[in-house]
Amino acid sequence: MLIPLSLASALTVLSTFAWGPTGNQFGGEGGILRAAPNVDGGASFGWIDSDLNVLGSSLSVTGSIRAAGGAAGVFVGASLNRSYVSSVVGDDSDGSYFVWNLNRRNLQRGKDLYALRVDGQMQVRPGWPVAGLPIDDSPMDFSYVQACGDGSSGLFVAWNSTTQSSALNSTGPDSVRIQRILASGSPAAGWPARGIIAARSAGEAVVEDVVADGSGGAFLVYQLSPPYLQYVQHILADGTPAPGWPVNGRRLKSFATPSEYCMYSTSAISDGSGGLYVAWDDDRERPAGAPADASYGDIFLQHLLSDGSNAPGWPQDGYPVHAGPGVQWNAQLCPDGTGGAIVAWMQLDGAGYPWISRVTSQASQASGWPSGGLVASTTSGADNPQPASDGQGGAFVAWLVGTRLWAQHWRADGSLAPGYSISGTLLVDLALAGQADPVLVPSLPGSAILAWQDQRSPLGYSLRAQRLIDDGIVPVALSLRSSEADADHVHLLWWGASVAQGEYSVERSVDGASWNSLGLAQATSTDQLSFDDRTIIPGARYAYRLTDSYGRAVIAPTWVDVPARAEFSLAGARPDPAPVGQLSVAFSLPTQASGALELLDVAGRRVAWRELGSLGAGRHVLSMPETASLAPGVHWLRLSQGARQAVKRVVLLR
């Protein structure tokens, strides 16, 4: 008789590893996905639904939904015309800030900019207006909103504001604004209601990043045009410009020629010591007379100190992370955890590989990293690779190829982490499933959380997330489906996406400490593995687990109690004496071999019987209602299987 895995054991497996093999859903259909890490290793998410409402959700580091709205998300804000989630920023606890713009008026009179602070369950923090705090509700048009924490659980919000807001598609003049909001929900001391103007432009201004300086102030990175040039400005905690910085900020490059054009791909991070890293691409390699539609692009990185000067050893116009033939574009940064920076970018021409490089604070390649960086993956057609620090000197990288989401992990020494192939790891390998709009954020050291839009026909769209770890996807790419045991064998089933693409060994233990390999699990379908263990001892207790090709356990141990081998025995009538027509017989069989249960009268004639070959080994109870037609008195029960026989007396009563 097969005995199923106990419910308690099943719940233990689920609670230990809550991340599903193809990601956990945290929201329904949505777009403009934003994410932020929480200090406990989880992440918060924001998006807009099909009705242009702003929704939010939160996942713990174990993959469980913390938000009160469950898998559908929680309503954060709404718009009469259109909402746009600009930023989600962690609030130094399990909560987050949401920053969005919306139309409370009409399309001819500009937008409003709002912020809201919520806890991990997406409930509004005390002191904050339920509908959001207005950051800028003047009758102007604005866009390019960026936000970051201020280092004290508060928030910086930066945006560009267009004076001529009454005209659609206005192109200026623009101003770059920034506001600091305290954790309590009010502007910081010295900051006016609509923030301060950090820079002005005769044309368009594009805010590209805002980064806390570690002392209550912030760096702003923006583009002013014409011409298209990048600038950095430093605002102190009290809202005043930092001493020594130019009125409109410091230009990232000292030169400007008619051919120069900086793409909208500037990325900035803190250096952890009060300074700033800024990465960008430009076409300074463009030869004179080149066609206007010819593409060029190299990746550069600059390290600025708090006073606006270059860090010692850094070139005036940036360190060439990758300069040479080809078009390199969309540089993205993350810290390396030791004061340096990791840069990821995409190659537009040729194979279209994602690239990555690690640069030290002294303007040199980190040990083990080649000059010019290295190819992050040999899967071609990469689109906008995103890095996230692993907290150990390396970085995770995520990117799309068409509608397929890939990830990779490079360690601090420039080596590929075990468990990741040079082609990368495909996150969801399900037929008819497509991904879009990925967002990657750091988690606990050695891990990161990746979120995306997902379509699984015919189920439709959803928002999902997965946790990446040092050596691959979080080790729940497989989960136990069932465990059954009898005295002769244990049967195990596991489930996971595309399990047939890898080899998994089954290991067994009697104490949970030392393990012996039994062989490879067999793929019975694209998402199921099975294994039968016939080398067991009846009555024993075993733990089973799966390991991958690197010998790493990929699922929590499963304990199975093997039943003792059943004996051949006839317990007799139930009850005894038994009323005629109500006789039941209890007995035990050691095997599934054919056998018979007979009822005999005192003359030895068979008056009722049952064939037992279909019952199998174990304890059984059979009823014999046909005894209703028999005369009361003494009868005999006979159980037989093979050469074995057992006889019991039974009395039938009226």
Distance between the termini: 36 Å
**Proportion of residues in extended strands:** over 45%
Mean pLDDT: 85
Return residue spans where pLDDT drops below 50 for at least 5 consecutive residues: 1-17, 164-170
Total strands: 50
CATH class of the domain at 569-653: Mainly Beta
Gyration radius from CA atoms, angstroms? 34 Å
CATH superfamily of the domain at 569-653: Macroglobulin (MG2) domain
Summarize the structure.
With 654 residues, this protein is mainly beta. β32 and β33 (461-469) form a beta hairpin.
List keywords for this structure.
50 strands; Immunoglobulin-like; mainly beta; five-stranded antiparallel sheet; 654 residues
Please tell me about this protein's structure.
- The protein is mainly β.
- Among the domains are: 479-561, Immunoglobulin-like, CATH 2.60.40; 569-653, Macroglobulin (MG2) domain (Immunoglobulin-like).
- The protein contains 1 helix and 50 strands.
- A 5-stranded antiparallel sheet has the order 1-35-36-40-39.
- The relative contact order is 0.08.
- Mean pLDDT is 85; it is low at 1-17 and 164-170.
